[in-house]
Amino acid sequence: MSSFSALPVALQHKLASATRSSSSVVMAMTNLNIIRNIIFVLFILRFVRRSFYTLRGQGIIGYIRHAYSQIRVFVYSLFLRAPGVRGKVDKQIAETLTKLEAKLTPQGPGVIKFTSLPKEAWTAEQVQAELDKLSAMEHTKWEDGRVSGAVYHGGSDLLKLQTAAFSQFAVANPIHPDVFPGVRKMEAEIVAMVLALFNAPQGAAGVTTGGGTESILMACLSARQKAYAERGVTEPEMILPETAHAAFNKASEYFGIKVHSVRCPTPDYKVDIRSVRRLINPNTILLVGSAPNFPHGIVDDIPALSRLAVTYKIPLHVDCCLGSFVIAFLKHAGYPSPYEDEGGFDFRLPGVTSISVDTHKYGFAPKGNSVVLYRNRVLRSYQYFILPNWPGGVYASPSIAGSRPGALIASCWASLMSMGESGYTDSCHKIVGAAKKFEEAIREHPELSKSFKVVGQPMVSVVAFASNTPQVDIYDVADAMSAKSWHLNALQSPAAMHIAFTIPTAAAVDNLIADLVLVVAEERAKAAERVRQGKAAERKRGDASALYGVAGSIPDKTIVRRLAEGFLDTLYLA
After folding, report:
1. What keywords are annotated for this sequence in UniProt (predicted)?
2. Which of 410, 529, 534, 561, by CA, is between 20 and 30 Å from 369?
3. How many separate domains does the chain show?
4. How far is CA 239 from the centre of its chain?
5. What pLDDT, on the 0 to 100 scale, is given for residue 6?
């Protein structure tokens, strides 16, 4: 008999309903607890997994060192925000930026600034006269070979040809291949020629871009999209040498890719392969090597990176933006080519899946030209942007830009055809020959060898050198060379400077060595005088010494970032 039989029927129904409701609540709570526990377990597993890969990649000592560095940065940032300190820092930054503005933006009664359209159209003569004034503004004389890199000039005859090609295709836009078929043909041929230079296999592909940064961005995007499409990777990571170009870090910020920066230890300053191997995990979408890197001109161990790429089935990008047509022609010019006995540094290695090459550097094309190469068309397709349902029609573009200047493509094509293999072989011989001569002077000159040491074993066009004595501060040397109208590159971590040789710079290598010898003698004399004066000695700091001295001595880079941001703002002051 039911236990509810003595109760009214209506009450029995209510009690039964309450019992069922209570059971449902208990069941729901149980299910909720199970789901909560599952989520918690997944969170713990994710944390443990991340911690495992971090510890495996960095090692216990490396992990502790990283944690200490982060704590140090945090504490120093608190110090900079302290009321008494913050005001002084802000004042000094403002003073520095004011000086920078005065240096970069023309001032004075003779300077006319145009901040609005002229009421009446200028004549061609008026425009040309103003262009002549702008061209004649005081600047470092790159024409005399006194600038490191920056201007990759192939000669006045080539410049005239480029100007003619630019003029002929000034209105061309490759987004309309039916309107400008000649530009489409030239662009495809540029890609084909550069693919051949870097020993691409059958079926390889590529795209022209607006510069090395865009080429690198596209390679990173392709790797990210490939990993997502083929492996479902949603938290992508890439592993690169600490000397890799800053464009990889830009790609990291733009595309949400975590960067593992691997040290390049002395004495060879190449990426540490064992560290790269330890950092590889299921989220790794790309390995990176430089041939050569920008800071020191060192070619990473690309064959070893290729073996890792093949073993772990991860794309490998080789950045040849700087080396470009010099590294490709080393063997032709009679110089050793990197890792020739191990398969080279390009598509001959099975693990290399993409390469970035700047045609606007040692290809001598006008600025705004580069190429990103892929082992196959599938890899290239991952960088494409396609919107099939746009109201304006089906939209497709191969890279970041939509419209692109066909004139630059025409000028690049004209440069490649005008130079040919013989021209690039000759330029490689001149450039690398000058670099070798300068390197030899640093290593063997009686004065220079006492003060400097060459960073690693450069093989291409860049030679970096650091001080090997406390008597000579490398940044003071940089400032002193600047005072002699040399524009060299100051480096950090380690403190050093470099010169990237070009055709104009190669012709001035003897003057460079002579001035460097004079500067070293002057700096040694200053050091001796400071020792004589003792504590009373006052040391004047130049721009490079002040900036990089500060950057290297403080853990928090907020001040440096603010100065860099101010510099960029200054560029747009009319």
Report:
1. Endoplasmic reticulum, Lipid metabolism, Lyase, Membrane, Pyridoxal phosphate, Sphingolipid metabolism, Transmembrane, Transmembrane helix
2. 561
3. 3
4. 14
5. 61
Q: How many residues are there in the chain?
A: 574
Q: Do 380 and 466 belong to one domain?
A: no
Last residue of a domain, which of 80, 101, 131? Answer: 80
Does residue 448 contact residue 459 with C-beta atoms inside 8 Å?
no
User: If residue 238 lies in a helix (H) or strand (E), which one and from where to where?
Assistant: strand 237-241
Largest CA distance in the chain: 116
The three-state DSSP-derived secondary structure of 120-188 is CCCCHHHHHHHHHHHHCCCCCCHHHCCECCCCCCCCHHHHHHHHHHHHHCCCCCCCCCCCCHHHHHHHH
Q: For the residues of 365-409, what is the DSSP string, one character each? A: PPSS-EEEEESSHHHHHTT-EEETT-TT--EEESSS-SS--HHHH
- The verdict on residue 269 lying in a domain is yes
The pLDDT value recorded for residue 558 is: 83
- Calculate the dihedral angle through the C-alpha atoms of 336, 339, 343, 347, rounding to the nearest 10 degrees: -90
pTM over 0.85: yes
Rg, C-alpha atoms of the chain: 30
Q: CA dist 391 to 175, 305, 387, 388, Å?
A: 18, 45, 10, 9
Closest CA to 549 of 459, 473, 485, 437: 473
Q: Are 461 and 432 in contact (CB under 8 A)?
A: yes
Q: Residue 465, SS3? A: strand
DSSP lists the bridge partners of residue 370 as 209
Distance of alpha carbon 103 from alpha carbon 518, whole angstroms:
27
Query: Same domain, yes or no, for 205 and 232?
Result: yes
> Tokens at residue 107, please?
């001032």
Query: In terms of domains, do 314 and 370 share one?
Result: yes
Domain encompassing residue 72: 46-80
Helix (H, G, I), strand (E, B) or coil at 518: helix
206 DSSP β-pair partners: 373
What's the pLDDT tens digit per position in 277-315?
999 999 999 999 999 999 999 999 999 999 999 999 999
Strand ranges (E), 201-328? 205-209, 237-241, 258-262, 284-290, 316-320
The token duo for 422 is: 């013989």
Instruction: Kindly state the tokens that stand for 20.
Output: 């069922």
* Phi, psi of 78, deg, nearest 5: -65, -40
Q: How many Cβ atoms sit within 10 Å of the Cβ of residue 275?
A: 20
Cis peptide preceding 267, ω within 30 of 0: yes
Dump pLDDT digits (tens) for 185-202: 999 999 999 999 999 999
Confidence (pLDDT) at 37 = 80
Same domain, 385 and 461: no
Quote the tokens at residue 139: 């600047």
- Could you tell me whether strands 489-491 and 395-397 are parallel, antiparallel, or unpaired per DSSP bridges? unpaired
AA identity, residue 93:
I
- Residue 563, by phi and psi: left (phi above 0), alpha (psi -120 to 50) or beta? alpha
Counting runs of H as helices and runs of E as strands, what totals does the chain give? 18, 13
Residue ending a domain, choose from 36, 55, 80? 80
Residue 197: which CATH number? 3.40.640.10
Query: Nearest Cα to 174, choosing from 211, 214, 206, 209?
Result: 209
- Return the axis-axis angle of helices 83-104 and 558-570, rounded to nearest 10°: 30
196 and 173, same domain (yes or no): yes
